[in-house]
Design brief:
single chain; mainly beta; Immunoglobulin-like; 5-stranded antiparallel β-sheet; 1 helix
Length: 186
């Protein structure tokens, strides 16, 4: 009986460990203690998700259900202990698909890049602001893509919060949700 119980316990731990490893690089992850409520967690995908890889790509997704109004600005804040680096230099001569920061809107089953007016990375305040040329209409899935990201050196769990501004006279930030990013140590 002891042998069977030990084997079952070991298999359960192994299965649980593999499930956490498999879900660590995409969609809302598994949170044991704390963190945003489930309905506030946003989906994401990291191409590599390890601290040892020289460059990574973050695909931060916002479901259509959260996009209940037009958006003229995205504001993404992250914790002060995140010491990664972002490439935000937009080249006006490049195609919107070839930029280091992209905002993609899902139209007719595929994502289309939206031209961006400006991207500002405020390192002191741990904030990235993204300004599309035209407001993104309500009711569409959105994906924000950061390419050429240098991940934090030692990995960890990082909460990236998304707030948006609607076009109009009163600039009022609205909280859409949080991406809970997990960067694995190399």
């Amino acid at each position: 009986m002891k042998r069977w119980l030990t084997t079952a316990l070991a298999m359960g731990c192994l299965t649980f460990g593999l499930a956490i490893e498999a879900s660590a690089q995409g969609l809302p992850g598994f949170t044991i203690f704390g963190g945003p409520r489930r309905e506030n967690q946003l989906g994401f995908r990291l191409d590599y998700g390890t601290s040892g890889h020289p460059r990574d790509r973050y695909r931060l997704r916002i479901p259509a259900e959260k996009m209940t109004f037009a958006v003229s600005q995205f504001s993404i804040d992250y914790p002060d202990y995140y010491n990664g680096e972002f490439d935000i230099e937009l080249d006006p001569d490049d195609d919107p698909d070839d930029q280091p920061v992209e905002v993609r809107v899902r139209i007719d089953g595929r994502y289309e890049s939206v031209p961006l007016e400006e991207v500002i990375w405020d390192e002191e305040n741990h904030l990235i602001e993204i300004y599309p040329v035209e407001a993104i209409p309500a009711g569409y899935k959105v994906e924000i893509v950061f390419s050429n990201v240098r991940n934090p050196r030692f990995g960890g769990m990082y909460y990236f919060n998304c707030r948006v501004f609607s076009p109009g006279d009163v600039p009022l930030a609205r909280y859409l949700g949080t991406w809970v990013l997990s960067i694995n140590p190399s």
